[in-house]
Amino acid sequence: MSHSTTSRIQEHIGDPVSDESPVGREKLEEIFQDIQADLRYDHELNGCLNCGICTATCPAAHYYDFSPREIVQLLWTENLEGIYDTMQEKIWSCAQCYTCAARCPFGNSPGGLVMLMRETAIKHGMESAKNVLRPFSRVMLKLISTGNQLSPDMITPDGFADWGPNVSKIDAPLETLRKAIPMPTLHTTKTAWEVNLKTSVELYTIWEETGVLDSLEIIDENLFDVISDIMDEKRDDYEDWLDEQDDD
Predict the structure, then answer these.
(1) Which of 103, 124, 145 corresponds to the end of one domain?
(2) Which end of the chain, N or C, is surrounded by fewer C-beta atoms within 10 Å?
(3) How many Å apart are CA 130 and CA 87, to the nearest integer?
(4) What's residue 141's pLDDT?
(5) In this structure, is residue 7 part of a structural domain?
């Protein structure tokens, strides 16, 4: 009986039966160095007893293939292949509740480390980051172009079909609900606060200087182009307004 000499196709980074990683060592090192170079890294990672308290108290670990302990162990042991593999899906399961940080006897913050890994995934334009953020493009457009929040009455099944059936849970009679549970302000498209022109330009400058827009361009170039056009128009309008003030 003859046996096949071909190996099984690698299913994920670090798969032990595969001959080589689809991502080069140099790239893996670059990704890890970007995570490690962040000023928050040494504050969030102090060691690990592998006790599992973080995972035992993690809400996401009960519902997803996610373990805060795995995050800490991968970074602590500098398992480059495992880190990359985790960045393809698992890091996006974290709810950022930081229960792990509150319970860790070593003072680690797996949630904080996940945040660093997410930011690095965005920086490197990983497909996982693009897939996760794509449904929120309209929210980002609203926030960045106007500086305003997404009002509840904008979230409807028709407007956010890509959010799935769960969006129907918030498609409720808002006016009736708000009368039953009064809120300080009624954040809807009719009453939501407006951001003046000067503030909009200042916000755009902050996002530009801090690299937010650079990250956006990597993840969603089309959205970046739309927002850039909007903000260029606002800057022009603000310059015209300043000229008018000088004339007066």
Answers:
(1) 124
(2) N
(3) 12
(4) 83
(5) no
| Cα R_g (the chain), whole angstroms | 23
Listed residue (85, 88, 91) closest to 64, CA to CA: 91
**Pair of tokens at residue 82:** 């495992």
3 state SS of 104: coil
Q: Number of helices (H) and strands (E) in the chain: give both, helices first.
A: 13, 0
86: its two tokens: 């985790």
Rounded-to-integer distance, Cα 70 and Cα 47, Å: 13
Calculated CA dihedral for residues 221, 227, 228, 232, nearest 10 degrees: 170
Residues of the chain with pLDDT under 50: 1-10, 13-14, 17
Cβ pair 113, 44 in contact under 8 A: yes
CA–CA separation, 91 vs 72, rounded Å? 12
CATH number of the structural domain spanning residue 119: 1.10.1060.10
Q: Which amino acid is at 220?
A: D
